[in-house]
């Protein structure tokens, strides 16, 4: 059994071929897709965060709106770039959104990936300290955020406050109990997966990873997941960690599916570089008739090792088609693989 959700990058383009012509279109359709996915029986609605781009950016208004419109589905991100975040303000936003959603938030956070501008986090007022890299900056922000979510007081109260304070040091409010156990680290390497395990965070691994061995992506990710779980057990955390894998998967069940995804493109992993000199491996797209798809997915070691699968959806094709993509996997693929 696996939890199956969707992951949307939230693109919009003012063109005739796009069903999302504006930011308003993307935001409102993201809410509608989450509602539709819940009705179909999916388990999660996750959203990517990019800055300086015609894509979803500030996640918490959207997460809160989705939380208010749904009742069961998990709501999350994949991922929030912590280089851009004020950890304390983020803890307030996250606590509020989680309370609105009734404790269903699953926040994926990370260093993020290449952005549209050079060192965009500097425009947000954040600069690495002397001797730090931008990745160190992200982890420093993460450590502060993760610690604050414990709900312990740390700020000295004013001797003459506007309103009466509870006794002792004050904490960030609103506090949502349990949210700290629902923070995920989006890891692009074995080393950061081990770091996440030591911190006590869940693990997200996507369709992109540092190419550390030259082997297929799913094998490298399965090795990454094993390293994560081994580190988790060595530390001795008391709860069972969660692991998600993202994949582009399309069951070809009608002519529209075949028109969009039936041409056999991206049927193999590819390698390349993004914003650094580290070689990356990019995951293939799975697109085939359901019986063929079932046989192919049964060989994906990383999906087998994970408890949660996030289906990347082509949001610019509209809510109805994205819901169809999700429904096709739930009906025609998941049962045969034992995911349902």
TrEMBL record:
One of its GO terms (cellular component) is cytosol. One of its GO terms (molecular function) is oxidoreductase activity, acting on paired donors, with incorporation or reduction of molecular oxygen. This is LLM class flavin-dependent oxidoreductase. Residues 9-253 form the Luciferase-like domain. It comes from Paraburkholderia panacisoli. InterPro entries: Bact_Lucif_Oxidored, Luciferase-like_dom, Luciferase-like_sf.
